[in-house]
Design goal:
- Helices cover about 65% and strands about 0% of the residues.
- It is mainly α.
- It has a domain of about 60 residues: Homeodomain-like (Arc Repressor Mutant, subunit A), CATH 1.10.10.60.
- Helix 2 packs across helix 3.
- It starts with about 25 loop residues before the first helix and ends with a helix.
- It is found in: Nucleus.
- This is Homeobox domain-containing protein.
- Keywords: DNA-binding, Homeobox, Nucleus.
- It comes from Caenorhabditis nigoni.
Length: about 130
């Protein structure tokens, strides 16, 4: 028998009636979560516990919010870099200076390095073309 799924296991999901309703965060909760996210993209266990108590949310809700927010942040970062590549400036670019001052900059640093390498190669290839014309 050929299965439409990649794997033949069945998820153990709660039925819709057994699940908690979707969390609607208050403006105060969102402000605090965004503020914490700007300080650090990843939370320690102690910080997550403290936030859950302060904001009256479960640790799982805090953890899930941060996972979703990091995904959104990475998509925004990738989109901005793609847009900058389309514009191809004539000098190397160091985007997102605020990210460089953050403690967790490995993703930003890696993307910036890749972008600068790409821009340099494009400049070299365009100068070779210019010299041949």
């Amino acid at each position: 028998m050929i299965s439409a799924r990649k794997h033949d296991y069945k998820r153990n999901r709660k039925s819709v009636s057994e699940r908690k309703p979707r969390q609607a965060y208050s403006a105060r909760q969102l402000d605090r979560l965004e503020s914490e996210f700007q300080n650090d993209k990843y939370l320690s266990v102690n910080k997550r516990i403290q936030l859950s108590q302060t904001l009256n949310l479960t640790e799982t809700q805090i953890k899930t919010w941060f996972q979703n927010r990091r995904t959104k942040w990475k998509k925004q970062l990738t989109s901005s870099i793609r847009q900058m590549c389309k514009e191809v400036p004539s000098t190397p670019v160091v985007p997102f200076p605020a990210l460089l001052s953050q403690p967790n900059t490995s993703l930003a640093t890696s993307l910036i390095s890749s972008l600068n390498t790409s821009v340099s190669r494009q400049e070299e290839s365009s100068s070779v073309i210019d010299n041949h014309e």
